[in-house]
Amino acid sequence: MDRRRINGPPSGTRPAVFASSIKTAPGAATERPKRQRQSNELRKIFLKTGIIPTASGSSYVEFEPSASLAAAHSSPQSLIPSSSSLKLACTVHGPKPLPRSATFSPNIVLTTHVKYAPFAARKRKGHIRDTGERDLGVHLETALRGVIVAERWPKSGLDITITVLEAEDDRWWGDAADSHDASWGMMNVLAGCVTAASAAIADARIDCLDLVAGGVAALVSDDSTKDEEGPKLILDADPAEHQSIQSACVVAYMPGRDEITELWLKGDSSKASLGDGDQRVGHEALIDGAVDAARGAHTVLTEAVKESAERFIRQAMG
Amino acid sequence: MAATLPSLAIPGQRLGSTTSYAAGPGTHVYDAVIYASIAGPVIVDQAQAKSKAKSLLTVSRSINRQTGATPSGAATVKPTVSTTAPKPATTKPKLKYNTLPAVDSVVLARVTRVQKRQVTVSILVVLDELSSSQVSDPSKTTSDNDNIESILSSAANPENHSSSDELRFQALIRKEDVRAVEKDRVIMDEMFRVGDIVRGTIISLGDQSFYYITTARNDLGVVMARSEAGNMMFPVSWKEMRDPVTGLGELRKVARPF
Amino acid sequence: MAQTAATTASQQQPIPPSLALPPSQFARLQPHAYLLAHLSPPASSNQPSIRANGRSPLQFRVTSANAGSLTHTNGSAVVRVGDTAAVCGVRAEILHTDDIASWSVSRPAAPESNKKRRKLADTNQKPTQESADVATQNNKEDGSEDDQEDESYIQDFNLLVPNLSLSTGCAPGFLPGAPPSTLAQGLSHQILSLLHSSRLVREDDLRIWYQPLDLGAEDLERRNESEQMDVDAAQNDQQHKNREIKAFWVLYIDIMIISLAGNPFDAAWAAVVAALRDTKLPRAWWDEDNEMVLCSEAVSEAKKLSLRGMPVASSFVVFEADAAAGWRAVVIPDAEEEEMIDEAKRKGLQRRWILADPDGYEEGLSQERVSVVVDKKDGKVVVLRMEKNGGWAVGPKELRQVVDVSAQRWDEVKLILEQC
After folding, report:
1. Per the record, which residues fall in region Disordered (chain B) (predicted)?
2. Which pLDDT score is estimated for C133?
3. Which of A198, A210, B25, B89 is most open to solvent, judged by the fewest CB atoms within 10 Å of its CB?
4. Is C354 left (phi over 0), alpha (psi -120 to 50) or beta?
């Protein structure tokens, strides 16, 4: 028992079980949401910097809800949300002194933390970071380390903290828990983290080589997909919208240099192809898809960072 | 050539070639091309006509009104061209690549500990090169480490007041760096007291945890101090300050008032 | 907003000429003198006393609220008070009475004995509660008769579980990933005790009933529905001899302080109230076949909580002109000293200010703090809680003023919460 927190009933509690979800015949009322976007069409990203004035830099990222979720918001029928849309806040603190115990560093020392709010996902998250959250922190750090001009900020530290207020689903809620066999939603979260952190670091005016952006591509198969067509490559997949995901890839990408600072690919990507006439297949196609998604995020990033610079100038001019 | 420069740059934005410009703070060079590394106004420091030096391209992290840099952020504004008045090379401000304390930076710091051989201070403000050399109107510069709004909103850490010092860079003033004369007769207790605000310059980046500061100049030393009674004192000589209420004097290494 | 006000204020305000420092450096080097210079402008300037952030002493920051934007919650809200922002999400989970160790022991054989047991518990708790809370006696006016004895389960079985987190990067100095800081722990406990003492959530809303099948299935279905609709269903206890509580809803109330710029409590509490107002619980029943509680996913069958009132928190700090006040040994000011202060006040020389809704800068410069929670019922102000610590400047006269200001603030916050 954790005495530093308010604890619930000692016996623990159970999440609500909906009658419709245990009926033997699959309920006709609720169906898997369908992707309404083109295969190369991204969800809109809302990105704003400078929301947290006590931090040296900050940003807030929100993915536009998928069509089904948006519809559920406007005229709610069911208490079970059809999908989920990413919402996260990022702060940058520093450059600040390194802890006394640290050894001398000629570079800036980066620390990254990603934590889900307890209410961020369908399943209640604990207060202590789990392995998934730690993983995200490590992936985020590698994505950023290659971007920051670290030697320009000797013997100082930079803390990047991300609070995920709403995460992406790993699969459709109606599917069995193991049907997608991997935490695909986490990859979308990572892409959002990269883009958010990039904006917050620029807002803190820490030197960077480029604005690094995150993007996701996935190889999916749906009921509608005919066998001969094989799985389909799509950008910015919402895992709730697909029956099965064969493979997915997230990149952190610097368009100015055409460089990938972080790459994370899961699943079997051998059947991926970008479309008619395109030579690239397999994981190359999937990575290129993720890079395209990152380019899309980069345009949003550019606008937000410009806005941050203009705000700074206005502030300085009084 | 200059007309192709944007007025406002964002990290990764291509600014110009190294054949026509020299890369300054806020930029980096990749493949003989200068790119912005921070977001901010682009400033071209025109080289003097006679010298062969290239114009210096910087992305500014401080809006310096004295140079007349007034980019409005509108895309139509041409990059600001500031012509540095011919000055002796020695007074030319050093390039500042970050907001951290650097060698020769003038800082204002609060004394946190007085020991026999050294005092520990916590750096509160790193003064801009310009504001320290041209004190005539210091309010005209703003750099990002003194945004009044963020100072006001930031909590003196409610947890534990001493830990707010952990968020500030720490520095030491060693006994031999206190003053230029009679170094061997320095008694630390008669130079500084905990809570005093000291103006000093950085002499070395020091070790992992401390910078080194000197006050061995007339204009350096204690600038603000409270007496034992708790009142703000005023300087009466280079080694004494006085409490206006009690009239009692206290010893300090006093910075020459301007 | 406050930002522009702050800059203009700092430009207008006179700063001692001897200090050739820009305002920002002055603010950092001599925070106390900086705030004092703003609050006590020279009499000749004819300027009003104004804080460094541009607000008048009793002015609160611009406040906004937005509810229901988080998908995976039963209710949620974001509240911004100036630059302090709190996000609150309420998640309801189920606690089976079979899982409550003490349930089978204390299990009511008949509703009658149940009431007695609860009454007993109530009287046991009274003394401790009263020491913390100034006034709860007003609760009688609340209406429903069941109010008196319906709260003990909420406290006994931990049905409300608030936790506040500052490890979000909300301010420098709070390490992400570290265990909750003392401040976070304190705030969580304050919220919990205020939830209990204000009796905001009705226990009746949290009960999940079981009615054994001695009627036709259809009949039962109808009855269940009507019970859900009827807030005071519990009163029909006597008629439903066999009805029993099979489970409770447990509300996990998590508050993430996303940005901390002073006075987290007011924002956090407002977020809790707004999120609870937004909270909908699904219709739930005990399913004998599956031996578990099942819920209906239909939004139309879900029910909002019926909260008791709308408590609003307002916090204040006291700023002393005497910078050394905090350093000196604590001496209770005698009458003579108080007279001097009053005298100075008459001459227009204020030495002490009560500042509403302090920002982080002001919190760092004050020792004394007052926090008031008020509600209004039929235009009558009810003080639900009052907490004062760290000083002696606030006496009965000042407290009255603070309560008046808090009552005005209640009107403001009510409008904001009702529209979100």
Report:
1. 67-90
2. 43
3. B89
4. beta
Contacts (Cβ under 8 Å, ≥6 apart) of C147:
C139, C140, C199, C202, C308
Q: What's phi and psi for A198, nearest 5 deg?
A: -60, -45
For residue range B136-161, list pLDDT tens digits in order.
333 333 444 455 666 665 544 444 33
Cα separation of C21 and B224, whole Å? 12
Residue at which a domain ends, from C308, C327, C347: C308
How far away is chain A from the Cα of C291, in angstroms, using its nearest Cα?
Answer: 12
C195: domain range? 68-100+147-211+244-308
Tokens read off for B98:
């970050």
Which residue is closest to A129 within chain C, CA to CA? C177
How far apart CA B16 and CA B36 sit, in angstroms, is 10
Domain membership of residue C75 (yes or no) is yes
**Distance between CA atoms of residues B37 and C92, nearest Å:** 47
User: How many angstroms separate the CA atoms of C207 and C220, rounded?
Assistant: 17
Residues C351 and C249 in one domain: no
Task: Just give the CATH number of A28-33+57-316.
Answer: 3.30.230.70
C262: domain CATH number?
3.30.230.70
CA dist B86 and B79 (Å) reads: 21
Task: Supply the pLDDT for residue C347.
Answer: 61
Q: Which residues of B touch C324 (CB under 8 A)?
A: 226, 229-231
DSSP A55-81: SSEEEEEEEPPPHHHHHHHHS--BSS-
The band of A1, judged by pLDDT with boundaries at 50, 70 and 90, is: confident
Cβ-Cβ contacts under 8 Å, C180 against chain A: 4-5, 127
Query: Chains with ≥3 Cβ pairs under 8 A against A?
Result: B, C
**How close, in Å, is residue C251 to chain B by CA atoms?**
29
Q: Measured between alpha carbons, how far is residue C293 from residues A174, B165, B200, C97, C153 in Å?
A: 19, 54, 70, 11, 19
What is the Cα–Cα distance from B96 to B105, expressed in whole angstroms? 10
Select from B184, B182, B183, B190 the least CA-distant residue to B241: B190
How far is the alpha carbon of C93 from chain A, nearest alpha carbon, in Å? 5
Per-residue tokens: C240: 């439903």
Averages of pLDDT over runs of 10 residues in chain C (420 residues) are: 38 40 78 87 81 95 96 97 97 94 64 45 43 41 48 89 95 86 95 96 94 59 52 50 89 97 97 98 93 93 96 95 55 60 64 92 90 94 92 85 96 95
Residues C55 and C184 in one domain: no
**DSSP H or E run through C363:** helix C360-363
At C20 the pLDDT is 57
- Complex ipTM value: 0.93
Residue C95 lies in a domain: yes
Which residues sit opposite C326 in a β-bridge? none
Which residue type sits at C3? Q
Helix, strand, coil percent values for chain A (each to nearest 5): 30, 25, 45
List the domains of chain B with CATH numbers: 8-59 (2.40.50.100), 105-134+143-251 (2.40.50.140)
Note whether residue C415 is domain-resident.
yes
Helix/strand number for chain C, H first, E second:
13, 14
Q: Do C180 and C287 share a domain, yes or no? A: yes
- Domain identity same for C251 and C391: no
C291 in any annotated domain: yes
At B86, the pLDDT band (50, 70, 90 cuts) reads very low
Residue B51: pLDDT band (50, 70, 90) is low
- C199 and C73, same structural domain? yes
Chosen domain end from C308, C334, C358: C308
